[in-house]
Amino acid sequence: MSYHSELAELVAACHWIGAKGWCPATGGNMSLRLDTETCLVTESGKDKGSLSDTDFLKVRLADNGVADGRRPSAETGLHTLIYRLLPEIGAVLHTHSVNATVLSRAEKGTELSLSGYEMQKSLSGQQTHLDTVPIPIFDNDQDIDALAMRVADHHRRQPLIYGFLVRGHGLYCFGRTVAEARRHLDGLEFLFQCELTRRLLEAK
Ligand SMILES: [Zn+2]
Fold it and tell me: What keywords tag this UniProt record (predicted)?
């Protein structure tokens, strides 16, 4: 598959994410791996609902460097980290949805455990609602390098699979293709809404 068709799929995914309201006020950022050394990342400050393929910048995975002096998203360092840690990953979607933001604060621990939901099977490799899917939660940090170090440390102990939450901030999720990353995002957002609703009902 050429990167042009994957980029067209990513732009379509951005418009879908914008329509869902998961990236308000130009928040969030998306990326696509080009090869073992580079990826495309959304330019800073762009509305995800109206992105085009010229709103992506080519970034080096090794040092987050950009060739033409334009400014990539502030959180580029987490995208490049994911591509360095997980060679099979081809696309990363980072959203700021209400459900991811609130649930990552309501859960005080370092992990959100999802179990008992049929929709867990939207995540590649999950066969049954009886398993528990752990989604790590990292405390937010304006120092992206420091946050990236904590994510990398966690990955060495427990490899990342579908994504992770940043507390009070949002979700990073990924897949081998844009289509897989999009399915993981859709599935996780559904599961977050279920889990948040369940907790609200049980608290009454
Ligand atoms: Zn963010």
Answer: Amino-acid biosynthesis, Lyase, Metal-binding, Methionine biosynthesis, Zinc
- Distance between Cα 76 and ligand 1 center (Å): 10
Q: Is 4 annotated as a binding residue?
A: no
CA of 147 to the centre of ligand 1 (A): 12
Please give, one letter per residue, the 3-state secondary structure of 7-20.
HHHHHHHHHHHHHH
> Measured in angstroms, how far is the CA atom of residue 87 from the centroid of ligand 1?
23
Question: Cα–chain-centroid distance for residue 118?
Answer: 21
pLDDT in tens, 90-133: 999 999 999 999 999 999 999 999 999 999 999 999 899 989 99
d(CA 29, CA 169): 12
94 annotated as a binding-site residue: yes
Paired strand residues for 167: none
pLDDT digits (tens, 9 = 90+) for 35-60: 999 999 998 878 888 889 899 999 99
40: amino acid identity, one letter: L
